[in-house]
Amino acid sequence: MKLKNVLIVVKDIERSRQFYRDLFGLEMILDNDGNMILTEGLVLQEEKYWKEFIGREIIPENNACELYFEESDIEGFIEKLEQYYPEVKYVNRLMTHSWGQKVVRFYDPDGNLIEVGTPM
User: Fold this and answer.
1) Which of 6-10, 53-57, 93-97 is predicted least confidently?
2) What are 64-68's contacts with CB under 8 Å, separation 24+?
3) Fold of the 6-117 domain
4) What is the pLDDT of residues 89-98, one digit of tens each?
5) How far apart are CA 119 and CA 36, in angstroms?
6) Which secondary-structure segment (H or E) carries 10?
7) How many whole angstroms separate alpha carbon 80 and alpha carbon 62?
8) Shortest CA distance to 44 belongs to which of 114, 115, 110, 117?
9) What residue ranges do the domains of the chain occupy?
């Protein structure tokens, strides 16, 4: 068995597709009307369908998991983030962990937590 994809819930699938393309270069592989697969295995699921499947409310910014990306030019990434999405909500701005890795954490437009760090 292998892990195939990671699914996140979004309110506006087109807005989210644009967000992940602008910042991370992810492209659409398949659009299944409310369920979109992007490169690197990220799946966007529209909230209305997810609610039907699980029968529960969605809790944005629940901080129970995060999407983790690595970027060598993290300062350049932050410039791009602030240029394209100046309204982004940060969990923490650029910081350096005790082991030397630089990281930034923020929410996507739907409250999914994202971390971008320099490669280890």
Assistant:
1) 53-57
2) 65/113, 66/105, 66/112, 66/113, 66/114, 66/115, 67/6, 67/8, 67/42, 67/108, 67/112, 67/113, 67/114, 67/115, 68/114, 68/115, 68/116, 68/117
3) 2,3-Dihydroxybiphenyl 1,2-Dioxygenase; domain 1 (3.10.180)
4) 999 999 999 9
5) 28
6) strand 6-10
7) 26
8) 110
9) 6-117
